[in-house]
């Protein structure tokens, strides 16, 4: 079920769910391995940390949908945990590979500020998570939370870095910033349209 009634829209929802436990475990594991990678000076460990983060992030969402345990509280926990993982792993990556500093700066500012505000904007409507934002606006959803958009947002930048294509990574990060800026403006218009501003 994707829509929630008005009472559920203001409740936090159950916190003790299997997907939330997965989110907590993958966050602790990814951050721990990321810090260990930084201490050891190991790019390979950093790659493992990113793997834990991405696999865990896909798994918690899949389990939430599979078990019918998708909640607004779980969506917020996932968003916050993504930022914790990304912050530690990105800073660790810059420490290990200083040539990616400019890409990391652009990406982090976009992800930690613009994308966070966009991702949390679902709370203004009676939907369970950003994954259901297509019920509010299909274009904003397609550019930010569709499977293709999610892959391009992070994996596009990290993939280009993994292949040593730093200029391509920077171009992808800048393109993501442009999309996020357009999306922020679109969400502001939606808030005005729906009287939620």
TrEMBL record:
InterPro entries for this protein: CDP-OH_P_trans, CDP-OH_PTrfase_TM_dom, CDP_ALCOHOL_P_TRANSF_CS
Stretches that traverse the bilayer: 28-55, 102-128
Protein family membership: Belongs to the CDP-alcohol phosphatidyltransferase class-I family.
UniProt keywords, alphabetically: Membrane, Transferase, Transmembrane, Transmembrane helix
Name of the featured protein: Phosphatidylglycerophosphate synthase
One GO term (biological process): phospholipid biosynthetic process
GO CC terms: membrane
PROSITE patterns attached to this UniProt entry: CDP_ALCOHOL_P_TRANSF
Any one GO molecular-function label of the UniProt entry: phosphotransferase activity, for other substituted phosphate groups
């Amino acid at each position: 079920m994707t829509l929630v009634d008005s009472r559920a829209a203001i409740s936090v929802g159950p916190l003790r769910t299997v997907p939330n436990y997965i989110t907590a475990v993958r966050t602790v594991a990814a951050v721990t391995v990321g810090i260990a990678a930084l201490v050891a000076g190991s790019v390979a460990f950093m790659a493992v940390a990113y793997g834990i983060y991405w696999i865990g992030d896909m798994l918690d969402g899949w389990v939430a949908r599979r078990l019918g345990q998708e909640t607004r509280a779980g969506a917020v926990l996932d968003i916050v945990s993504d930022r914790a993982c990304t912050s530690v792993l990105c800073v660790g990556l810059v420490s290990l590979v200083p040539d990616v500093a400019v890409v990391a700066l652009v990406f982090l500012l976009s992800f930690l500020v613009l994308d966070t505000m966009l991702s949390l904007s679902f709370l203004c409507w009676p939907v369970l998570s950003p994954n259901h934002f297509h019920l509010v606006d299909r274009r904003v959803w397609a550019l930010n939370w569709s499977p293709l958009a999610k892959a391009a947002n992070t994996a596009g930048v990290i993939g280009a870095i993994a292949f040593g294509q730093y200029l391509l990574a920077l171009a992808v990060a800048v393109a993501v910033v442009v999309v996020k800026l357009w999306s922020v403006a679109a969400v502001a218009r939606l808030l005005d349209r729906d009287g939620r501003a």
